[in-house]
Amino acid sequence: MCGAYCAVRAMERASVKWLMLAVAALGFAFLANMLEGLMVAPAFGLAYLLVAPTSSRPYLAGSTDNNFMNLVIGYNGLARILGREQAGAPGAAAPPEGLQQHGGFGGFGRQDPGITELFTG
């Protein structure tokens, strides 16, 4: 009962303090009734992961808008064929003055953008 109360309080604000109190309560329940005290631990953990307002994470795989399909179709698809570093990404910077960009994806030697890049050495 005490563990459930602490887990609910932890989920309200993503509070580490209340989460640790819930874990401590489950530890005491384990000492009292062995495995019966820990049977609810997976449910508490899953509920916390789904409900708690945790901090934000970085965008997916370096995408500019956290959209998986834009990453698949744009950056890893059309952008590589067309030779653009970011597929029309807003805020994509131009290369500095005096530097020429060849293909935008590194590699050795000069790379010409386009579909023929797939079939040349």
From TrEMBL:
It holds the Pfam family PMT_2. Residues 4-55 form the Glycosyltransferase RgtA/B/C/D-like domain. It comes from the Bacteria. This is Glycosyltransferase RgtA/B/C/D-like domain-containing protein. It comes from Mycolicibacterium sarraceniae. The lineage of its organism: Bacteria, Bacillati, Actinomycetota, Actinomycetes, Mycobacteriales.
